[in-house]
């Protein structure tokens, strides 16, 4: 019933919203956690290296373990014992999808260690469960399938996703501050209602952003201009700015220079799109100073778009990626 050896799953970081696509758009980024799951005769052994080591719990409340347990419930099997080893590279609470990566690692890890897991839970089942655990689909969707995704729920609450490939000239530059902000807190800053004009504004910009990211054969400068216009948002970033002033200031500086910059997910990281062949963004100039008024520096990194979602390396060669 269970795989005879360990299975390693590697979920990518993700950036949600991308400006106007609140709770819908997401982008998978090539920065991966690594979670190894093994069924053992009894007990629970959890070890963590990297991000969160020493602070995340090592019991059943660990997010990967919780997600594994929920997935085993859906799969209709419970392992006698579990060994889970996490090598974490995605920073926690920074808007780069760490919680979705943990959830998708658990869901896909459980599916991989059950011999007929893919029959018991199809791709929609995995997306459904991961969305339920995360609370919204915009990070788990690209984490599972890679690329640039639009995720939505139908009237029955069924989640679906459309995946597309950003043009290869597009890259993501992330600016990560040293202090976290929980998604829960950031969601609490949003109003219950927004003006109709702001909703209409975002709908137009979201449509534009999808085209600016994916249309082939755009002149690089034109693509940058379209990405700039297409990353404008009125539904969440301003409301959340008081909780991430250095990030808001950095976005202001980047946009004043014509760079398409947004809050990554619920923040406080900042994501700016670069376009090969268009005016370059010298990340170190912006990262070094942060917001002079507040003095918080950012760590900047260029992250390629991840074409693949969670990669599963397992014992059943032939059915798994190695
Ligand atoms: N690999 C992990 N192992 C265990 N717990 C994790 C892991 N990754 C994230 N978490 C939990 O999730 C919390 C961060 O989730 P949160 O949704 O606030 O931020 P995020 O997912 O990094 O950002 P965003 O959702 O905006 O992209 C951590 O503080 C931790 O409790
Ligand atoms: N759409 C989510 C992404 C963060 O998980 C938010 O902005 O709250």
From TrEMBL:
The gene is thrB. Residues 63-147 form the GHMP kinase N-terminal domain. It is found in: Cytoplasm. Pathway: Amino-acid biosynthesis; L-threonine biosynthesis; L-threonine from L-aspartate: step 4/5. One of its GO terms (biological process) is threonine biosynthetic process. One of its GO terms (molecular function) is ATP binding. Gene3D superfamilies: 3.30.230.10, GHMP kinase, C-terminal domain. Catalyzes the ATP-dependent phosphorylation of L-homoserine to L-homoserine phosphate. ATP binds at residues 91-101. GO terms for cellular component: cytoplasm. It catalyses: L-homoserine + ATP = O-phospho-L-homoserine + ADP + H(+). Keywords: Amino-acid biosynthesis, ATP-binding, Cytoplasm, Kinase, Nucleotide-binding, Threonine biosynthesis, Transferase. Its EC number is 2.7.1.39. Belongs to the GHMP kinase family. Homoserine kinase subfamily. It comes from Actinospica durhamensis. Pfam families: GHMP_kinases_N. This is Homoserine kinase. InterPro entries: GHMP_kinase_C_sf, GHMP_kinase_N_dom, GHMP_knse_ATP-bd_CS, Homoserine_kinase, Ribosomal_Su5_D2-typ_SF, Ribsml_uS5_D2-typ_fold_subgr.
């Amino acid at each position: 019933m269970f795989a005879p050896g360990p299975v390693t799953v590697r979920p990518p970081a993700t950036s949600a919203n991308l400006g106007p696509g609140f709770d819908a758009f997401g982008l998978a980024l090539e920065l991966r956690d690594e979670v190894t799951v093994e069924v053992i005769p009894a007990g629970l052994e959890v070890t963590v290296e990297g991000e969160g080591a020493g602070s995340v719990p090592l019991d059943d409340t660990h997010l990967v373990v919780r997600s594994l347990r929920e997935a085993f419930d859906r799969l209709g099997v419970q392992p006698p014992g579990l060994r889970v080893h996490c090598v974490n590279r995605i920073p926690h609470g920074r808007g780069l999808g760490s919680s979705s990566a943990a959830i998708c690692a658990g869901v896909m890890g459980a599916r991989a260690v059950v011999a007929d897991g893919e029959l018991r839970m199809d791709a929609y089942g995995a997306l459904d469960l991961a969305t339920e655990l995360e609370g919204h689909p915009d990070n788990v969707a690209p984490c599972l399938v890679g690329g640039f995704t639009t995720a939505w729920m139908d009237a029955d609450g069924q989640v679906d996703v459309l995946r597309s490939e950003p043009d290869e000239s597009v890259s993501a530059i992330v600016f990560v501050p040293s202090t976290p902000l929980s998604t829960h807190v950031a969601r609490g800053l949003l109003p219950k209602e927004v003006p109709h004009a702001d909703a209409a504004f975002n709908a137009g910009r979201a449509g534009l952003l999808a085209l600016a990211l994916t249309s082939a054969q755009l002149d690089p400068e034109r693509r940058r201009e379209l990405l700039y216009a297409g990353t404008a948002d009125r539904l969440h970033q301003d409301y959340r700015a008081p909780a991430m002033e250095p990030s808001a200031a950095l976005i202001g500086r980047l946009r004043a220079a014509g760079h398409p910059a947004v809050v990554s997910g619920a923040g406080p990281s900042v994501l700016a799109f670069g376009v090969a062949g268009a005016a370059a963004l010298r990340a170190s100039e912006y990262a070094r100073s942060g917001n002079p008024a507040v003095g918080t520096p950012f760590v900047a990194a260029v992250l390629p778009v991840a074409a693949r979602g969670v990669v599963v390396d397992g014992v059943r060669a032939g059915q798994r990626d190695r």
